[in-house]
């Protein structure tokens, strides 16, 4: 366990908890690189049923403790996005009530599934509850955006089409999809993947098309898979150049008979959508048996 800024004040307020679900990019198109260096994206984002858990005990001082199987992978606690998000919100909300955060870390880090962003988003939701702030409050939205590109969509933690640099969100009625997530336990720095993509400032990468009419709420999984198959993750090829093992993961997932398999985010986590939950579980068990060092999760995306 690691702690920073621990308080000497004992709080009598009840602790609050939030689930920080893994984010999965079902598609990820890089539209181009802006003059400020940021990349414009278009992504269909889903959320998985695997997560971290963040607890806040209100108190006088802001602090963070980490435990769980992935706690040692978090790096320096002082740089954790949970604290960054809290401080950014504190700069925008006078007399913000904070306290002691406790992070139970299960998701792999630098993995393309927004683990750190989901944790930061959970922190903002907890602070919103303690301070009676609406999730749609412009101050909270700005704090989320400044914390990281994936934090706004993780605050909502529901399927969305995400555009711009992550600030524009359009909810979609995604059905529950049986899936397997696999991470080969290698970290991939997002900046390295974008560097491998190699776009110059102001360069366009994809043609901006008319808004895609994604299936409406209640549409069957087959309708979604048909449309998702026509898109891609533009970061997949450059990520494989950075970490070739990603190609091995994708090949293994495709060998399961997956309906769709792709890398999430900037990697290295990849996903496969299977026909049903039993197929997903069998595939996960087979992959884990063959690659015991990999992180494997069978569940659903929604």
Series of secondary-structure elements, N-terminal to C-terminal: EEEEEHEHHHEEEHHHHEEHE
Tell me the Rg in angstroms.
19 Å
Category by helix and strand content: alpha+beta
Number of helices: 9
Overall strand count: 12
What is the annotated CATH architecture of the largest domain? 2-Layer Sandwich
Average pLDDT metric: 94
Q: Report the principal-axis shape.
A: globular
Oligomer: single chain
The largest pleated sheet is described as:
8 strands, mixed
Helix content: 25-40%
CATH topology type of the largest domain = Ribosomal Protein S5, domain 2
Cα(first) to Cα(last) distance is: 32 Å
Strand percentage lies at 25-35%
Q: Could you explain how this protein is built, in words?
A:
The protein is of the alpha+beta class and 302 residues long. The protein has 2 domains: 2-171, Ribosomal Protein S5, domain 2, CATH 3.30.230.10; 177-301, Alpha-Beta Plaits, CATH 3.30.70. It has helices at 81-90, 115-131, 138-147, 151-156, 190-197, 221-228, 236-242, 245-254, 277-290, and strands spanning 2-4, 16-25, 29-33, 39-59, 63-67, 98-104, 160-164, 168-171, 177-183, 260-263, 270-273, 295-301. The longest helix has 17 residues, at 115-131. It is globular, with a radius of gyration of 19 Å. It starts with a strand and ends with a strand. The model is unreliable at 1-10 (pLDDT under 50).
């Amino acid at each position: 366990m690691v702690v920073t800024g621990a308080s000497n004040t004992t709080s009598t307020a009840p602790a609050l908890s939030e689930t920080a679900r893994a984010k999965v990019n079902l598609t990820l198109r890089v539209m181009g690189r802006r003059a400020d260096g940021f990349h414009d994206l278009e992504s269909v984002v889903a959320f998985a049923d695997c997560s971290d858990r963040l607890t806040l005990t209100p108190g006088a001082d802001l602090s963070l403790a980490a435990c769980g199987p992935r706690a040692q992978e978090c790096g320096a606690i002082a740089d954790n996005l949970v604290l960054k998000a809290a401080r950014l919100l504190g700069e925008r909300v006078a007399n913000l009530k904070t306290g002691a955060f406790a992070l139970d870390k299960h998701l792999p880090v630098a993995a393309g599934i927004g683990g750190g962003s989901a944790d930061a988003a959970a922190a903002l939701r907890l602070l919103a509850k303690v301070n009676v702030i609406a999730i749609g409050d412009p101050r909270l939205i700005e704090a989320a955006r400044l914390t990281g590109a994936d934090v706004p969509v993780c605050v909502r933690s529901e399927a969305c089409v995400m555009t711009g640099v992550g600030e524009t969100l359009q909810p979609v009625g995604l059905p529950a999809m049986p899936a397997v997530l696999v991470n080969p336990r290698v970290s991939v720095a997002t900046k390295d993947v974008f560097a491998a993509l190699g776009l110059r400032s102001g360069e366009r990468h994809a043609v901006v098309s008319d808004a895609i009419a994604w299936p409406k709420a209640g549409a069957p999984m087959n309708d979604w898979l048909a449309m998702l198959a026509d898109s891609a993750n533009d970061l997949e090829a450059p990520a494989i150049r950075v970490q070739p093992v990603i190609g091995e993961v994708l090949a293994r997932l495709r060998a399961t008979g997956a309906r769709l398999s792709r890398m999430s985010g900037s990697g290295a986590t990849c996903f496969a959508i299977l026909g049903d939950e039993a197929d997903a579980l069998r595939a996960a068990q087979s992959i884990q048996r063959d690659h015991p060092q990999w992180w494997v999760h069978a569940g659903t995306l929604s």
